[in-house]
Specification:
The protein is of the alpha/beta class and 200 residues long. The N terminus is likely disordered. It contains six helices and nine strands. The chain has two domains: 33 residues, no CATH class; 157 residues, Rossmann fold. Helix 2 crosses helix 3, helix 2 packs across helix 6 and helix 4 crosses helix 5. Strand 7, helix 5 and strand 8 form a beta-alpha-beta unit. The N and C termini lie far apart (58 Å).
């Protein structure tokens, strides 16, 4: 049996005696690995922008115009090494995931249901919550910054929750809340503003 003794070099570990007890005791050690390097450091050294989670929020029903706006937002976020987070259903949520998907990126859907049957087809990962509208808080907390595209009262609640927990909000054709949000005129402006305010 290995015996636990104090290593004179302070290395820690177990001493193992050979059969017969004549050979010198040998030390075996578990190698201590360094902590994993953060994605932030790796990405900076590779010349990439730091990984940013962008929650794209909006109505579950979207006009063709809003759908294309949100789709472009999702694509532009991916092109800047971002991850799209959304509510996982249809409308603006689907459009943002669609844009991320076609650009080869990651789209995470946080669903209000207890199963995935209503999840849109463009999600990379779906998370079921069984929380109903209360899942809006999980959506905004999962984003480092929020982009609201169009939207109704559900979107307004997400904007309010985001501001309450300290997440910056960029709006695109959405609620006019004055100085509390950053208003953008195009998907390009919205994504540029989102990455800018998230770094402050």
């Amino acid at each position: 049996m290995p015996t636990r003794r104090e290593d004179p070099l302070g290395r820690g570990g177990c001493q193992h005696a050979s059969v017969g007890g004549d050979a010198p005791l040998q030390w075996s050690h578990r190698r201590l690995l360094p902590e994993p390097r953060s994605d932030l450091l790796v990405e900076e050294e590779a010349g990439l922008e730091p990984l940013l989670y962008v929650a794209v929020v909006g109505s579950g029903e979207a006009t063709e115009e809003l759908y294309e706006l949100a789709r472009k937002v999702g694509r532009l976020v991916t092109e800047r090494n971002g991850v799209v987070v959304c509510g996982g259903l249809s409308g603006v949520m689907e459009a943002a995931a669609h844009g991320a998907n076609e650009a080869g990126g990651v789209a995470i859907g946080i669903l209000p249901d207890e199963d995935r049957r209503r999840a849109n087809e463009y999600l990379t990962y779906s998370i079921v919550t069984g929380m109903g509208q209360a899942r809006n808080l999980a959506v905004v907390c999962s984003g480092d910054v929020i982009i609201a595209v169009g939207g109704e009262y559900g979107t307004l609640s997400e904007i309010g929750l985001a501001l309450k927990v300290g997440r910056p909000v960029v709006t695109l054709g959405s609620w006019d809340l004055g100085r509390h949000v950053t208003a953008a005129a195009s998907p390009e402006d919205a994504v540029e503003a989102a990455f800018a305010v998230a770094k402050r």
